[in-house]
Amino acid sequence: MTVLITGTATGIGKATALLFLEKGNKVYGIDILDSQIENTNYTHLQCDICGELPIIPEPVNIIVNNAGTDDTEMAIATNLQALFRIEDRYVSTHTKCVVNIGSTSAYLGIENREYVASKAGVLGYTRQLAKTMSEWGGRAVSISPGPVLTVMNSRIIDCPVKRQAVADENLLKKWIEPKEIANAVLFMCESESITGVDLLIDCGEHINHNEIK
User: Fold this and answer.
1) Does 212 map to a domain?
2) CATH number for the domain including 96?
3) pTM score, two decimals?
4) pLDDT tens profile 158-206
5) Which residue segment(s) compose the domain that 25 sits in?
6) Which residues, at least 6 apart from 74, have a Cβ–Cβ distance to it below 8 Å?
7) How does pLDDT run across 3-46, given as a tens digit for each residue?
C-alpha cells in the first residue's frame, strides 16, 4: 500500500508512520518540520499543508490527515480546510481509506472556539467524504483522541500539577501514548466494513470532565 500521512515529524503522525512502515507499506510524510524517520520506504515532503501541496508520483491508497494546530488564527485553515485540499489533490478511485484525526474537544467543547469548531467540522466532513468515496468502494473514518502525550500538549504535560489534573479527569486516570492512536488508525484502515463513523479514544473523559487551563 502507498500511504500518505500528514504531521509525521512528531507525536501521532510519527508513530503512525513507523507502524505502517513496520507493516511493509510505502509511506509519504508531509510536515512543516524536518523528519527523523530513517527508512528506505519513507519519503518526507517538508511543506505547509496550507500552502502548495507536493506532487506524489503514484496513486495514494491510504491517507491519514493528522497534522493540526490549536493556534486560533490557523486552526480552521490547518485542521479543516487543509483536509479539503488534501482530498482534491490526492484522493482518487485508488484511495481505499481516509482517516481524519479529530479531537475529544469536538464533543466536550473545550479549548478555544476555533479549535473546537475545526474539529467538529472534521467529524461532519468525514461523513460527507464517506458518501463520496463509497462510489468506488472507498471509506472515510475519523478518530477523536483525548489527552495524548504530544508536543501540542506540552504546556500541560510540562507542568506536573496540570498533567495529573488532566489524567484525573478521565476514568482511566492516564494519558494516551501516540502509538495507541496509531494502532487505532491501522485498525480502522484494515476494517473494511467501517465507514462514516468516529472512534472516540479518550479514556472515558467524555463521561465527566472539567477543563484544565
Assistant:
1) no
2) 3.40.50.720
3) 0.94
4) 788 887 888 788 899 998 999 999 999 999 999 999 999 999 999 999 8
5) 2-207
6) 50
7) 999 999 999 999 999 999 999 999 999 999 999 899 999 999 99
C-alpha 116: how far from its chain's center? 15
Structural domains of the chain, count = 1
**First-to-last C-alpha distance (Å) of the chain:** 41
CA angle 79, 82, 85 (to 5 degrees): 155
Which H helix or E strand runs over 107? helix 105-108
DSSP state of 7: -
In a domain, 213, yes or no: no
Question: Cα separations (Å) of 170 from 65, 179, 204?
Answer: 26, 19, 5
Residues 27, 139, 131, 181, CA torsion sign: negative
Domain assignment of residue 121, yes or no = yes
